[in-house]
# Entry
Amino acid sequence: MNNGYSRQTWNFSWTQIKRKNLIRLNTDGSIDSTFAYENIFHNLFSVNDITIQSNGKIIV
# Structure
């Protein structure tokens, strides 16, 4: 990303419930705790690509 962040996606299972999420990493590899990511994904699907629009919105 052009602002020094990296975007990452992952899925995991917790008590046999699959979940997906999105995180943003700082340039040092730590998780950016200011990035609000809860409840982004409401359906199970695979992420093929991520892009950032000029207005800052994330398209997954």
User: Anything to note?
Assistant: The chain has no helices and four strands. Strands lie at 6-14, 17-25, 51-52, 58-59.
